[in-house]
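Retry 2 of 3 after timeout on previous attempt. Resubmitting structure tokens to design endpoint.
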């Protein structure tokens, strides 16, 4: 493959850089020379974080599983009281507290423990805690990451847990319950990002496809009071959505459609259709089929809104390419896509144009709007 002049220069520079950084002699020099010492220390910390990241995530899992963060949110307390409340020996509680303090989940002041800055922020986002609570399934699949990559994904603990996510059909309450609950718990921050980025009030009727228990639809309805609302998902999911939307006082302005969006035609008459964290859950062929179904359901001038974490996001590549890349592989369905890849799929599905819309926290979600 012939490289452009820019890529050729970048390749040559990268090879030169790697030779320098990989040299033990240069590393010793950089760690001692005053000008380069801060950079060397920061790089050493970053490399160690790569090595130790699993223990950090397990420390977080232990904090969630024991309820430590909730306990420390009430009031500062001592190690002995923490041990008694979370049913650990005092030495074990001390070890957990110190590990959690090292990653800013808790902190000690005057001999008492309280939430740290990151612990307080995490506790304010219930969706993160819900994700962490089932990460033991992902960890089981990643115990042998090469085997997971060789078999092409799925076939492990996570895919068995999320059978609803990778299958078609009606789905029963047991299948959809866990997945729907997780999506609902993690939806508020996503919804806030999307609703701040795009003005839903410009539309008359919104159909949320794959909308789960209606958490996003309820948020959109509150933000745009004149918007007619509709949700399309498996019948068992729709039953769960009905109760949530009724509790939010939206049952009178919401239509629920039961069906499989990979097999059944989508209802027409909506000038805005949303796919919120739906596209990346599906492999390329079903994802393209879904985009074509959305295109066929929209009227001329109608719009599709796609919101999800995306690959190759500047400043958030570990989230899109590393975390979701392996998570979806273990789940057995889907992959993170870049905005450019999604735009190409939209063109293939027949959409006239699309554009990427800025969001406040791209790591959480990016938004693409396509025109019919």
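Retry 2 succeeded. Sequence:
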């Amino acid at each position: 493959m012939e490289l452009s002049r820019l890529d050729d220069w970048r390749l040559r520079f990268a090879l030169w850089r790697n030779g320098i950084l990989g040299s033990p002699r240069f590393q010793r020099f950089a760690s001692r020379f005053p000008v380069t010492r801060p950079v060397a220390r920061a790089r050493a910390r970053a490399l160690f974080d790569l090595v130790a990241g699993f223990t950090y995530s397990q420390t977080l899992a232990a904090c969630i599983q024991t309820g430590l963060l909730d306990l420390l949110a009430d009031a500062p307390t001592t190690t002995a009281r923490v041990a008694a409340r979370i049913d650990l020996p005092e030495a074990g509680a001390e070890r957990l507290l110190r590990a959690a303090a090292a990653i800013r989940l808790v902190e000690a002041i005057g001999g008492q423990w309280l939430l740290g800055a990151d612990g307080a922020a995490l506790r304010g986002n219930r969706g993160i805690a819900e994700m962490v609570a089932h990460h033991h399934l992902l960890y089981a699949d990643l115990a042998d990451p090469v085997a997971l990559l060789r078999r092409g994904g799925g076939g492990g603990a996570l895919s068995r847990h999320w059978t609803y996510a990778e299958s078609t059909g009606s789905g029963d309450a047991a299948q959809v319950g866990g997945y729907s609950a997780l999506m609902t718990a993690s939806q508020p921050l996503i919804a806030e990002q999307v609703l701040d980025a795009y003005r839903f009030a410009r539309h008359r009727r919104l159909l949320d496809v794959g909308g789960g228990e209606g958490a996003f639809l309820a948020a959109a309805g509150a933000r745009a009071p004149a918007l007619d609302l509709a949700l399309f998902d498996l019948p068992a999911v729709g039953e769960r959505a009905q109760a949530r939307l009724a509790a939010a006082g939206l049952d009178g302005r919401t239509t629920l459609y039961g069906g499989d969006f990979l097999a059944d035609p989508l209802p027409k008459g909506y000038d805005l259709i949303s796919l919120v964290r739906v596209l990346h859950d599906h492999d390329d062929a079903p994802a393209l089929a879904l985009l074509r179904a959305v295109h066929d359901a929209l009227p001329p001038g109608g719009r599709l809104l796609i919101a999800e974490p995306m690959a190759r996001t500047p400043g958030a590549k570990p989230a899109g390419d590393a975390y979701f890349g392996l998570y979806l592989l273990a789940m057995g369905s889907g992959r993170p896509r870049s905005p450019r890849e999604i735009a190409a799929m939209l063109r293939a599905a027949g959409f006239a144009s699309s554009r990427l819309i800025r969001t406040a926290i791209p790591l959480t979600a990016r938004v693409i709007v396509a025109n019919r």
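Attempt log closed. The mean pLDDT is 88.
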